C-alpha cells in the first residue's frame, strides 16, 4: 500500500503520465534493449515490439495499477496481477530483473516529461513501481513454489511424440518427457511457453494452451501458422524432435464453484476450452456448459470434430457455432459474426472468453447487456498480445 502523499501526487500527475505513455514506453524499450540486447532476442516477443502491441501492454499495466491505487478495486487488481504474474512465471522472470526495468523506465520518464518530474513526483512514481513489483514478485514466487520449481527454473526438454494436422493451418503436437516419466500435472485451461532457436540466433518464446487431459502422461498443444515461432514449429518440429518448454501456468481456468459455465472462443482460441472440456468429461461433470465458438469457416476450424464430441459427452452441454462463410449445418450453427441475442445466459454463469481482442470485446459487451457481472467474465487474448 503506497503512502497518502504518494497517492495524492500520482492522482495529480497521472493524466500527464498517461498522455505521454506511448513516448515513455518507446523510449524505455529503446534504452532497455540497447543495454540488454539479449532481452529482445531471448525473452520479449520481438514481433509484438515491432507492431507496437507490447508497449501497449506495458503502458496499460502501469496506468491500470496507478488507477487502482486511486480507486481501489481488489477484484480487478487481483485479476491484473494474476494475468501478469502467470505470464512472467511462464517466461522464468525473477526478482533480479525488476531493478533493470526500473532503471530504464525511470530514465525514460525523466527524459520524456523533463522538468515536470520533480523530486516529489519521482518519489511517488518510484514508490508505485516498487509496490507493483513487490506484489508481482510475491505472486510469482508463490506460483514457482506451487509448481515445485525454483524461481525462474521453469524450462525442460521434451520430445515430440505425435504431430497431427487439426486444420489447414494448425498443427497439434503431443510431447513427452525424454526419460519416459510423466510430465507434471496442470490445471485445465493453462498454457506452456515454447522456446525455439531461430536462424538469426534469437531464441524466441510463445505461449500455447494445453488441450489434453490433466491425467495424461503427455502434454498436447496446438499451433496456428502465424508468426516466426509458429512457422518454425510447423517447419521443424516432427516426431522424435526435442523442444524446450516451460512448466504450465495461466489463470483462465475453471472457477472453484460448480455453477453454470459459458466457454466462448474464436479461431485457435478454442484451445484452452478444449483442455477444460476434457476435464469436465473425465470427471463426469453434470453442470450446464454452453460452448460458443466463432470461426471463418467449418473447413478452417481447428479441432472442430473434437469439440463436438466432447460437448456431446456432457449431460448439460450445448454447442453454438458461428461461421463467417458457408451454409448452416444445423439448428445451432449460424452464418455471420457471433451474436448472443438468442443464447440463454443464466445470471449465475461464469464466462471464460478467449480469442482476438475484437471478438472478446463483442462477447463481453453482449454478456454485460445480459446483466452478467463483470467479475464473472474472465478472458484471455489470442492474437497480438500473446500469440
TrEMBL record:
Any GO MF annotation of the entry: nitric oxide dioxygenase NAD(P)H activity
Sequence ranges assigned to domain Globin in this UniProt record: 1-141
EC number: 1.14.12.17
UniProt record similarity statement: Belongs to the globin family.
Cofactor: heme b
Domain FAD-binding FR-type span(s) in chain numbering: 153-255
Keyword line: 2Fe-2S, Heme, Iron, Iron-sulfur, Metal-binding, NAD, NADP, Oxygen transport, Transport
Record flagged with keyword NADP: yes
GO biological process entries: cellular response to nitrosative stress; nitric oxide catabolic process
Keyword DNA damage among UniProt keywords: no
Catalytic activity: 2 nitric oxide + NADPH + 2 O2 = 2 nitrate + NADP(+) + H(+); 2 nitric oxide + NADH + 2 O2 = 2 nitrate + NAD(+) + H(+)
The protein's name in its UniProt record: nitric oxide dioxygenase
Superkingdom assignment: Bacteria
Amino acid at each position: 500500500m503506497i503512502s497518502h502523499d504518494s497517492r495524492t501526487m500520482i492522482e495529480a500527475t497521472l493524466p500527464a503520465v498517461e498522455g505521454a505513455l506511448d513516448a515513455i514506453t518507446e523510449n524505455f524499450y529503446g534504452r532497455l534493449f540497447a543495454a540488454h540486447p539479449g532481452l529482445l532476442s531471448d525473452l520479449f516477443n520481438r514481433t509484438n515490439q515491432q507492431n507496437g502491441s507490447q508497449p501497449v501492454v506495458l503502458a496499460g499495466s502501469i496506468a491500470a495499477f496507478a488507477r487502482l491505487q486511486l480507486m481501489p478495486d481488489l477484484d480487478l487488481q487481483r485479476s491484473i496481477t494474476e494475468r501478469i504474474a502467470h505470464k512472467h512465471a511462464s517466461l522464468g522472470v525473477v526478482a533480479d530483473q525488476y531493478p533493470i526495468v526500473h532503471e530504464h523506465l525511470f530514465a525514460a520518464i525523466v527524459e520524456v516529461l523533463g522538468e515536470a518530474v520533480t523530486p516529489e513526483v519521482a518519489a511517488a512514481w518510484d514508490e508505485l513501481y516498487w509496490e507493483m513489483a513487490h506484489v508481482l514478485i510475491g505472486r510469482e514466487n508463490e506460483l514457482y513454489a506451487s509448481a515445485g520449481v525454483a524461481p525462474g527454473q521453469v524450462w525442460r526438454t521434451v520430445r515430440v511424440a505425435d504431430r497431427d494436422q487439426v486444420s489447414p493451418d494448425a498443427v497439434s503436437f503431443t510431447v513427452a518427457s525424454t526419460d519416459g516419466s510423466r510430465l507434471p500435472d496442470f490445471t485445465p485451461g493453462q498454457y506452456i511457453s515454447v522456446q525455439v532457436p531461430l536462424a538469426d540466433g534469437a531464441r524466441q518464446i510463445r505461449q500455447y494452451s494445453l488441450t489434453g487431459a490433466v491425467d495424461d502422461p503427455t502434454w498436447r498443444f496446438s499451433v496456428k501458422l502465424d508468426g516466426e515461432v509458429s512457422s518454425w514449429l510447423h517447419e521443424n518440429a516432427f516426431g522424435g524432435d526435442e523442444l524446450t518448454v516451460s512448466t504450465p501456468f495461466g489463470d483462465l481456468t475453471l472457477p472453484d464453484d460448480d455453477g453454470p459455465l459459458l466457454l466462448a472462443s474464436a479461431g485457435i482460441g478454442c484451445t484452452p476450452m478444449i483442455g477444460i472440456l476434457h476435464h469436465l468429461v473425465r470427471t463426469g461433470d453434470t453442470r450446464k456448459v454452453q460452448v460458443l465458438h466463432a470461426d471463418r469457416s467449418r473447413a478452417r476450424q481447428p479441432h472442430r470434430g473434437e469439440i463436438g464430441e466432447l460437448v456431446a459427452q456432457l449431460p448439460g452441454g450445448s454447442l453454438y457455432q458461428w461461421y463467417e462463410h458457408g451454409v448452416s449445418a444445423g439448428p445451432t450453427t449460424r452464418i455471420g459474426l457471433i451474436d448472443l441475442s438468442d443464447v440463454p445466459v443464466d445470471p449465475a454463469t461464469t464466462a471464460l472468453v478467449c480469442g482476438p481482442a475484437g471478438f472478446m470485446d463483442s462477447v463481453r459487451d453482449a454478456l454485460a447487456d445480459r446483466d452478467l457481472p463483470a467479475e464473472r467474465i474472465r478472458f484471455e487474448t489470442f492474437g497480438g498480445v500473446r500469440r
